[in-house]
Amino acid sequence: PRSCAGLDSPGSGILPAAIMFPFRRLPAGPVPINRRALFLPTLVSLGLAGAFLYFLATRFDVNLNATWAQISAGNPWYLLLALVVHYTTFFFRGARWRLLLRNTQDQDSGTPGVFYCSQLVLLGWFANSVAWFRLGDAYRAYLYREEQAASFSRTIGTILAERVLDAILVALLLSVSILFMFGGAAGTAWYVVGFALLLAILLVSALGVLKLARERALRLLPGWLGERYLRLHEGALGGFQQILPVTVLGLLAWFSEITRLYLVAQALGFDLGLPLIIFITLANSLLTLVPTPGGFGAVESGVAGLLVRLSTLSASGAAALVVVDRAITFISIIIVGAGLFLARQILPQFFKGKRRSSLALHRPLELGRTEEP
Asked: What percent of the chain has pLDDT over 90?
């Protein structure tokens, strides 16, 4: 049996199983497709999805015929542009992640390009869309470790830095947008802002604890675990060396998503106003934190409810907007992500880039040991 230390080195083959099925004995051979399709969480997911859709149709008194009529009357060119704009967010997020990775590596170690990093961000979203418990970030870190001989702990640290920055930006943008929103249902919007602020405070606090507890953790933890703590520390805090370009790229990524929703609303003939568009886009992102595949069910019912309460849209109009927008942000991610996954298996030399030099990986850690990939 392999030791626990092997979990952080490439090629161990343990990590995906440990993440996906921590309490199951894994079969020796490949799992048949029918068993994967009938796996209990998949059935539960489908059942919850059906229940949420039933709730959406009954709770908000949706007229399905009116909803379909509004969708079919939408401007296809605006919708096509919304689809294209949505995928620019992966370019900005990939560029931001590449910068975070480069900030945590030695100058003589190469960092993959924006195209490669954007692929892994998209595949992480794909994993979030088809799996429970938002495993996409762990899957992205695993792919980077396997393909670039990198440290899993340090890579997870850069993704944690991403999440902290995103939480801060979401809380700030929500706080600004709500100042321009008026109406009797403003109290509902403040609950969303309060949750975003709480999430940002918790993540920033976690980062602070990671920094302040460093010396004590290195004294108390076993050597192999202390090494991984150092790599996580490097990844999470090292990326903030160039905070301005990282922040700008994060803002551009969010503006891409805001523009997508604006174009969807225009395609359906809805005039919602920019503050509400910003608010709904960011509330959508918070609802995807629900650990169903892609936040399915929670996003649809939550966004539709906010639209009905905060705008003049009817329930059918809100449902039409939600269905079209989710076709872009959820269904298309599954289709494009699956296509990218298959393409990477067929043409790995084109999509996976060059493996990092092994010489650049072996640099001393403060524990006095040489770092394994």
From this structure: 59
